[in-house]
Design brief:
The protein has 257 residues and is an alpha+beta fold. It contains eight helices and seven strands; from the N terminus they run ββαβββββααααααα.
C-alpha cells in the first residue's frame, strides 16, 4: 500500500478519528491514545478504544463504531480512509503507519455512523449485472464445462474482488451527478462472461452495462487499479468490457437490418 513506513518508537499510539453519530449530525474529530503493542493493526487499536472509551483528554466518550469481519483482507468490510488512503483496517499495521493515525469513513458511500458506511449501491449493482452463475436446481448435474487453462489464472484474479469499495472511493465518476456502477462491477461482468456457463447469460450483463451507469460512464481516470488492495487489473477489465459491449452493439445493429 502507498504508505510511509515509520516504526512506532513511542509507548503510546495516537489516533485522530473523524466521528459522526448519525448522517444528520455534524461531524467532529476526536483523538485517542492507547498503549503500543508489537504487531497491532488499526482494528486492534479500535478494539482497545472500545474496551475503554476515553479520549486523549481523559474524558469518557462513546465507543468508536466501525465494521469488520474476516480480519484477513478477504471480506472488505473494514474499508476506511487511513492516513488519506482508502484501504482495509485489518491489514493496516501500526508499525507501518505515521502518527497520528488519521481515520475517516469513505466519503463516496452514505454514512451510517463514525467509520461505518453503507456499500449497498455495490451489491445492488451486482444484482443488476447478474454477477453469478445460474444453475438448474441443487441436484448433481455432473461435470460442468471446463475452462480454458489460459483463462483460469486471469479469472481467479478477478474472483478475489472483496466489494470493498476502494476503487469507487477514488473514482471521480462516483458522485451525486453520476449513476456509474464502478470498476469493480465491470470487472465482475468480465469474470462471469469468461465462465463457460456464465457465457450463456453474457448478453444480459452486457445490456445492463450499456445502460445508465454503465461502461460508457467510465472517465478512464485509472485511479481504481492503483487503489485495489487485491491488485486486480481493473483497467484491463474495463477495456475488455468496453470491447464486448462494442461488439455486441455492432452485432445487434446488423441483426436488426
Amino acid at each position: 500500500m502507498p504508505e510511509v513506513t515509520k516504526r512506532a518508537t513511542r509507548s503510546m499510539i495516537r489516533l485522530k478519528i473523524k466521528r459522526q453519530m448519525k448522517p444528520s449530525d455534524p461531524s467532529y474529530w476526536e483523538e485517542f491514545e492507547i498503549p503500543y503493542q508489537p504487531g497491532m493493526n488499526v482494528i486492534s487499536c479500535l478494539q482497545e478504544i472500545q474496551k475503554n472509551p476515553v479520549n486523549a483528554d481523559g474524558k469518557s466518550t462513546s465507543p468508536v463504531v466501525w465494521d469488520c469481519n474476516c480480519l484477513e483482507e478477504v471480506c472488505g468490510a473494514c474499508s476506511m480512509v487511513i492516513n488519506g488512503v482508502a484501504r482495509q483496517a485489518c491489514s493496516a499495521l501500526i508499525d507501518q503507519l505515521t502518527q497520528p493515525i488519521v481515520l475517516q469513513p469513505m466519503h463516496r458511500f452514505p454514512l451510517v455512523r463514525d467509520l461505518v458506511v453503507d456499500r449497498q449501491r455495490m451489491f445492488d449493482a451486482l444484482k443488476r449485472v447478474k454477477a453469478w452463475i445460474h444453475i438448474d436446481g441443487t441436484y448433481d448435474l455432473g461435470d460442468g464445462p471446463r475452462m480454458n487453462p489460459n483463462e483460469v489464472d486471469a479469472a481467479y484474479k478477478l474472483s478475489t474482488c472483496m466489494t470493498c469499495g476502494c476503487c469507487l472511493e477514488v473514482c471521480p465518476q462516483i458522485n451525486p451527478r453520476s449513476e456509474y456502477m464502478g470498476a469493480a462491477i465491470m470487472s465482475q461482468v468480465r469474470l462471469f462472461n469468461t465462465h463457460p456457463t456464465g457465457k450463456y447469460h453474457a448478453a444480459e450483463r452486457l445490456r445492463a452495462v450499456m445502460g445508465p451507469g454503465g461502461i460508457a460512464d467510465c472517465g478512464n481516470a485509472q485511479n481504481c487499479v492503483r487503489a485495489c488492495p487485491k491488485d486486480i487489473p481493473l483497467t484491463t477489465s474495463l477495456s475488455e468490457v468496453f470491447r464486448q459491449t462494442t461488439l455486441y452493439g455492432i452485432w445487434n445493429f446488423f441483426k436488426a437490418k
